[in-house]
TrEMBL record:
Domain Thioredoxin: 51-161
Taxonomy of the source species: Eukaryota, Viridiplantae, Streptophyta, Embryophyta, Tracheophyta
Keyword Magnesium in annotation: no
Keywords: Disulfide bond, Electron transport, Redox-active center, Transit peptide, Transport
Protein name in UniProt: Thioredoxin domain-containing protein
GO MF annotation list: protein-disulfide reductase activity
Cellular component per GO, a single term: cytoplasm
PANTHER family reported for this sequence: GEO12009P1, THIOREDOXIN M3, CHLOROPLASTIC
Xref: InterPro entries: Thioredoxin-like_sf (IPR036249), Thioredoxin_CS (IPR017937), Thioredoxin_domain (IPR013766)
Amino acid sequence: MATSSSSSLSPQLLNTHFALRSSSLFPSSLQINAFSLCPPKSKSRLRVLAIQRPSKATVVTAQSWTTSVVDSKTPVLVEFYASWCGPCQMVHRVIDEIAAEYAGKVNCYVLNADKDPRITEEYDIKAVPIVVLFKNGEKCESVVGTMPKEFYVAAIERVLSSSS
């Protein structure tokens, strides 16, 4: 990204230069969390460390689990993920779409399995990504792995149509 003319810029000016030049590269819904200059021996002088999309699914933790999931009167979808998991990023995008489409019908949450091992153990989560659906505080459906959106939607529809 950095041109030869920007290689002589200070890091602060380079950051500004990158931000201005990148505005057409990234949609406005993306946030660049951090970037840094690479060591001189690196081929690239600029490296994007993290790009995040604003999530439509709310983060749930062990502290908020009972009120958000167990005591919810609305069906709940929870995506168990790990920050290092590539397939989890693909599932995030699908869950964000579902969160927007099912707003008011299903509460959508994401839980970092590495940060809340008590919850993952309690629900016998062995691998990520896994999407678990709850109704009246009880686990009733799960979709393991990265699947097409239709798999998640079908599980949601089964939960919404169930009488319990």
